[in-house]
Amino acid sequence: MIYSKLLGTGSYLPEQIITNDDLAQRIETSDEWIRSRTGICQRHVRAAGQTTSDLALEASRRALEAAGLRPDQLDLIVVATTTPDMAFPSTACLLQAKLGANTGAPAFDVQAVCTGFLYALSVADQFIRSGSARQVLVVGAETFTHLLDWNDRNTCVLFGDGAGAVVLGASSTPGLLGTRLHADGRYAGLLSAPGSMSGGQVLGKPTVQMDGGAVFKFAVKVLDQVSREILTEHGLTPAAVDCFIPHQANIRIIEATAHKLGIPSERVVRTVSEHGNTSAASVPLALDHAWRTGQFKTGQLGLLVAVGGGFTWGAGLLQV
Ligand code: ACO
């Protein structure tokens, strides 16, 4: 039996920070409102000209360094992003060239918005389990702020830019115990950036549209469901989870989910206050934070969960 083992993690946040007070100077909001409803204190925003593949590059270099591998030792690159540098080539191909990774090896993007990293992890795991790849770079990277209308206080306070990456390697011991993925396209209208390009023109609204209350309720429901599904599948209960690594959208969603599952507060990774919702980058950013701070360590079991536009949602169980 072949498993995917976590060999290294890395992350990157752009230097520029926008605080809640900065936003309150531009729009009708306040630090108190944002903090109490979301737990967010600040978000990182890309510099002019900085693209998703630039953010991915920094996170990938750090993950490769942690794994002790060179870019030319990679068999596959999978990038989860909703905000690719361009329509094509894929961000993964651009990243391959920037990293100086193994040319000729496959590289492609997956798009599942905030669940993107779990989708990418699952795809990478199938490649490793089937013997098609031995060393895989999996990245979640977003410049989500370019999808924002900075005058829409309902959405612009929530998001930020960032990237996280992991290197997975084939191993005879677990590893990633498994993943569970879901999608339900009937809920597409609750959260979307519905604009499209045609003949060089943007058609429709290209910025984020959201029914915040409905998203909140849906998120708490499915994060609880998918966590129980994957734990049950592996004969486990929430008590077995040493480290809960959820998508970082809103501290209230994270805490409500952990409470429903009965996972104690000290086992929950929280990074949302520092960078807001970074979409597909959020889970690998939280994973890297937990790993580097020692909140998640060798011998432990991690539960990764995410939910996002689509709707999409998923979970992964990671033994390290
Ligand atoms: N500052 C001040 N007031 C605001 C702001 C703001 N930034 N944004 C909205 N408001 C106002 C609204 O206009 C509304 O005013 P009204 O009642 O006069 O119409 C009021 O605040 C709404 O307040 P609440 O109902 O108390 O807001 P709520 O507690 O529902 O919080 C929030 C709103 C934060 C959007 C919440 O619903 C939420 O977090 N939902 C989840 C959304 C999310 O996480 N999306 C991310 C993408 S999805 C994902 O990653 C899972």
UniProtKB/TrEMBL annotation:
The keyword Isomerase does not apply. It catalyses: malonyl-[ACP] + acetyl-CoA + H(+) = 3-oxobutanoyl-[ACP] + CO2 + CoA. InterPro entries: ACP_syn_III_C (IPR013747), ACP_syn_III_N (IPR013751), FabH (IPR004655), Thiolase-like (IPR016039). This is Beta-ketoacyl-[acyl-carrier-protein] synthase III. Residues 108-185 form the Beta-ketoacyl-[acyl-carrier-protein] synthase III N-terminal domain. One of its GO terms (biological process) is fatty acid biosynthetic process. It is found in: Cytoplasm. Keywords: Acyltransferase, Cytoplasm, Fatty acid biosynthesis, Fatty acid metabolism, Lipid biosynthesis, Lipid metabolism, Multifunctional enzyme, Transferase. Homodimer. Pfam families: ACP_syn_III, ACP_syn_III_C. The gene is fabH. GO terms for molecular function: 3-oxoacyl-[acyl-carrier-protein] synthase activity; beta-ketoacyl-acyl-carrier-protein synthase III activity. CDD domains: KAS_III. The last Arg residue of the ACP-binding site is essential for the weak association between ACP/AcpP and FabH. Residues 231-319 form the Beta-ketoacyl-[acyl-carrier-protein] synthase III C-terminal domain. Catalyzes the condensation reaction of fatty acid synthesis by the addition to an acyl acceptor of two carbons from malonyl-ACP. Catalyzes the first condensation reaction which initiates fatty acid synthesis and may therefore play a role in governing the total rate of fatty acid production. Possesses both acetoacetyl-ACP synthase and acetyl transacylase activities. Its substrate specificity determines the biosynthesis of branched-chain and/or straight-chain of fatty acids. GO terms for cellular component: cytoplasm. Residues 248-252 are annotated as: ACP-binding. Pathway: Lipid metabolism; fatty acid biosynthesis.
